[in-house]
Design brief:
Interacts with small ribosomal subunit protein uS11. Not a structural component of 43S pre-ribosomes, but transiently interacts with them by binding to uS11. Belongs to the adenylate kinase family. AK6 subfamily. It comes from Aquilegia coerulea. One of its GO terms (molecular function) is ATP hydrolysis activity. Strands 2-5-1-6-7 form a five-stranded parallel β-sheet, sandwiched between helices. The protein has a single domain, classed as P-loop containing nucleotide triphosphate hydrolases (Rossmann fold). By secondary structure, the chain is an alpha/beta fold. It is globular and about 50 Å long.
Length: 175
């Protein structure tokens, strides 16, 4: 299997917009020297989308183009992938799937401060209430590699980065 040849693990950091994926991923990359891949930025830079969604004010990601773009570097290992979806990535890519979660009042404030409103705001709050991303991760990857982590505060983020850094340092390739 391809993951056996990786010398460093791949981690997916997922969750509803506003839970701290990019902050956590950036800090984890700094702490572990793994490569941070922000899928939203990659989609914009490489035009890996099928246009613009006016209702949700975002690009319509082309999942096949994204996976094609990432295939080789994911096989090499040593990546932290940061995205609010997870069910389209190949299961073989990840050694750990982190689902960040945030309490609704904190998330509401974060998203409102980003200018989210209307359907975009309510849809994301509902996703968090119903733990859509956690269920998606559990349905897409082996449950033993999926871990939910609370991400309400700077202290939570710092603790999460510490836990994940320790995990990366102790990671051994599957044999």
């Amino acid at each position: 299997m391809a993951q056996n040849s990786r010398k460093k693990p791949n981690i997916l950091v997922t969750g509803t917009p506003g839970v701290g994926k990019t902050t956590t991923s950036s800090l984890l990359a700094d702490a572990t020297q793994l490569h941070h891949i922000n899928i939203g930025e990659l989609v914009k830079q490489k035009n890996l989308h099928d246009g613009w969604d006016d209702e949700f004010d975002c690009h319509i990601i082309n999942e096949d183009l994204v996976c094609d773009e990432l295939e080789d570097i994911m096989e090499e290992g040593g990546n932290i992938v940061d995205y609010h979806g997870c069910d389209f990535f190949p299961e073989r890519w990840f050694d750990r799937v982190v689902v960040l979660q945030t309490s609704n009042p904190v998330l509401y404030d974060r998203l409102s401060n980003r200018g989210y409103q209307g359907a975009k705001l309510s849809n994301n709050i509902e996703c968090e209430i119903f733990q859509v991303l956690l269920e998606e991760a559990k349905g897409s990857y082996p449950e033993d590699i999926v871990i939910p982590l609370l991400s309400d505060s700077v202290e939570d983020i710092s603790r999460n980065v510490g836990v994940l850094t320790d995990w990366v340092r102790s990671w051994q390739p599957a044999s």
